[in-house]
Amino acid sequence: DKVRYITIKEFIFQPLRIILVTATFFLIASEYYINTILLILIFIPAVAFSTSKVYVLCYHSFYGIKAGTDIKSTRFKKQMILLKNLGYNFVSLEDIVENKINGNLNILLTIDDGNRSVRKVFPFLKEQSIKPVLFIYPAIISRQKYALTYTDMNKYKADATIGGHGWYHEK
């Protein structure tokens, strides 16, 4: 596997082979002009007979107060709208499993860990018909102040795929 950092311009226009890309957005931008988006790309071969591509964008929290994988919910929403305006289609995990993917401009959105800040973006995701995969830690759900609850999980299960990210890990 290779890990590469690329700009949003390269992400959008770079021709890639049949791949499934796992990426984490780090945004360094002004209010009106995106200067740089760094993506961590881990290349994983997709289904051999497929001619389509899916980029997997992975987020963690939506506060915008920590460096790294945390982003303001307003900035996240702008990124999603930008990607839609650039012609990207948001697909679900079920779409991939059922081989319902066409073309090369597909994005699967994943949100790791089960941080309660998902509440800030979930109504927007539902409104935009974006069905994310929520990779949660069962050890923290309804047990930690910063985590989602089982009530949240029940509310989100119709509009998201819920998967395990492992039992728990230290920060």
Describe this structure in words.
There is one protein chain. This protein is α/β, with parallel strands linked by helices and 171 residues long. Helix content is 24%, strand content 29%. It has 5 helices and 8 strands; from the N terminus they run βαβββαβαβαβαβ. Strands 1, 2, 3, 4, 5, 6, 7 and 8 form an 8-stranded mixed beta sheet that branches. Strand 5 (89-91), helix 3 and strand 6 (106-113) form a beta-alpha-beta unit. The radius of gyration is 16 Å and the shape is globular. Mean pLDDT is 74; it is low at 1-49.
Q: Which SSEs are present, and which pair or pack?
A:
Elements: E1 3-6, H1 8-13, E2 19-28, E3 36-45, E4 54-59, H2 73-85, E5 89-91, H3 93-97, E6 106-113, H4 118-127, E7 133-136, H5 150-156, E8 161-164
Parallel strand pairs: 2-4, 4-6, 5-6, 6-7, 7-8
Antiparallel strand pairs: 1-3, 2-3
Q: What labels would you give this structure?
A:
171 residues, alpha/beta, 8 strands
Summarize the structure.
The protein is α/β, with parallel strands linked by helices and 171 residues long.
Q: What is the averaged pLDDT score?
A: 74
Termini separation (Å)? 24 Å
Class from secondary-structure proportions: alpha/beta
- The secondary-structure element order is EHEEEHEHEHEHE
Number of helices: 5
Number of strand segments: 8
Rg calculated over all Cα atoms: 16 Å
The coarse overall form would be globular
